[in-house]
Amino acid sequence: MQRRAALIGLLGAELVSTVGSRMSFLAIPWLVLVTTDDPTKVGVVAFAEALPYILAGIFGTPLADRFGVREVSIGTDLASALVVGAIAAFGSGDFTVLVVLIATLGALRGVGDKSKRVLLPPVVEASGTPMARVTAVFSALNRMAMVIGAAVAGVLIAWLGPVGAIWADAATFAACAGVVVALVRITREQNHPARGAQESYWQGLRTGFGFVRRERLLRSLVGMMFVTNLFNQASAVVFIPMWVREHLGSPVALGWIGGAFALGAIAGGAAFAALVTRLPRYATLVIGYFVGGAPRFLVLALSDDLRVALAVSFVSGVAMSSVNPTYGLLMFERVPRAMQTRVFGLTGAITFGGIPLGGMVGAWAVETLGLSGGLWLAGAAYFAATLTPVFGWRLWQQINDIKGKAAPAAPLWQEYLSELGRRMGLVDTGPAVPVTVTLAYAGGGWTVTARRGRRRLARPYAVSSAAALQHVAALELPDVYETVEQVHLARRRAAEQQAAAVRANLRALESTLTELRAASAQWPSGQPGERPR
């Protein structure tokens, strides 16, 4: 029960932290706007938090391995509470002080978020809950917290003012630290996952970079998410506001469209959390991107009806709810525990890096091509990025079983169409379709078959036990060789026993024949009856 409480507490802490961060996301820009009346300074504040967040995620996370991920999580939350309190107390005075405090908060969150994420696997293992389900719940809670945080922030800003909302955010950071102190207990090895490596700071940093460089699947997924995040941000800050102003003329529609997508994401996240252990990850990810990605841009380019935009936004939110859990599960199961803080920081910086660029790309597209042309360009680019798992299906199907079991075979036509594209240099689908040679033992004999992919190259043909043992010995696979050798020795012993039994029977027959001949020779010639033969 205590172990389950630790998991619930950690998820609850993340929920509270996300709600608080969302409150600050809205309250701090509003504070800057009402105190300076300068929208440019609002952009400066946003950049001052984003850049340290990215850099700290890359360069600060090796320190978490050294000092302990639990202690770093607690320490960064407490420090964040103090910094946010300082923003509430002093931020409305000097703008330079506010920028420094915001940058400090971004750096603390960049390290603290990654440390809290690394705390999750040992807590999940102790609770006995499937990791796939926890990542789905984690993602759904994050979506829910963003919606709740925005609503709570609006109420608090109206009730207490922006400074009061920022003080409330400081309290959420302190509450998160308290939950981790009270409920989360992990072993020394789990708290210091990289302790056994005895690496220096720079060696640990290079090890994280080297791991990401070697992992093709991870690099492909992170690269695709960089592009999709870029255009998601362009849609949120440029395309949707421009579409609303041009076709509807009411800012209320901005909240309706964002709310429809968020509600779809929450509903889809709840359904995905219930079905995640039964759904094929690769197919779910691909379908989710196809349904929830490019159609959002194309419907704005083709329609001016708010009802259509709301329906497509809701469906897109449902479809996209599978993306973040699949990405999180890939990271947790494929990245070794000792490197998770460093790798999470690096990959998070790359995927997050597309967000600051999204607004600039969206503005350039609209200025150059107009709103409709920009939407068509964004939709085409988004669709092209989401084709990556299709063209690289051989690599991406590893998502179906991240721990290394064989992925299910693709349809034969798809396999050879992909191989044809690879040979012509049109797509990179990894290595050629492999040739598989199977040695099987059945019915007292060995047979060999050969296939390329799912096509049979040779009919099964029989080989002797000695030949099977000789060929397996050349593969340098001790466990396989031992198994074949045992079968070979068992067959040889059975053959020797059978030969010994035949020789014993022959000796017995020869002895009986000799006795009969001796008895025949001693039979009296005048004795009635037939002589023995």
What does this 3D model show about the protein?
- The protein contains 20 helices and 3 strands.
- The longest helix has 53 residues, at 131-183.
- A hairpin with a 2-residue loop joins strand 1 (435-442) and strand 2 (445-452).
- Helix 2 packs across helix 15 and helix 4 (69-90) runs antiparallel to helix 5.
- It has a 3-stranded antiparallel beta sheet.
- It is mainly α.
- It is elongated and about 140 Å long.
- The model is unreliable at 403-413 and 425-431 (pLDDT under 50).
- Helix/strand structural class: mainly alpha
- Secondary-structure element pattern, one letter each: HHHHHHHHHHHHHHHHHHEEEHH
| CA(first)-CA(last) distance | 89 Å
Radius of gyration: 34 Å
Oligomer: single chain
Taking pLDDT < 50 over at least 5 consecutive residues as the criterion, the unreliable ranges are 403-413, 425-431
Strand content: under 5%
- Record the strand order, biggest sheet: 1-2-3
Number of helices: 20
Let me know the number of strands: 3
Largest sheet: 3 strands, antiparallel
The geometry reads as elongated
Query: Can you give the helix content as a percent range?
Result: over 70%
Rounded average pLDDT: 75
Secondary-structure topology with pairs:
Layout: H1 2-36, H2 39-59, H3 61-67, H4 69-90, H5 95-127, H6 131-183, H7 188-191, H8 201-214, H9 216-247, H10 252-275, H11 281-292, H12 294-302, H13 306-320, H14 323-334, H15 340-386, H16 388-391, H17 393-396, H18 412-423, E1 435-442, E2 445-452, E3 455-463, H19 465-473, H20 478-521
Helix pairs in contact: 1-2, 1-5, 1-6, 2-5, 2-15, 3-4, 4-5, 4-6, 5-15, 6-10, 6-14, 8-15, 9-10, 9-15, 10-13, 11-13, 12-13, 12-15, 19-20
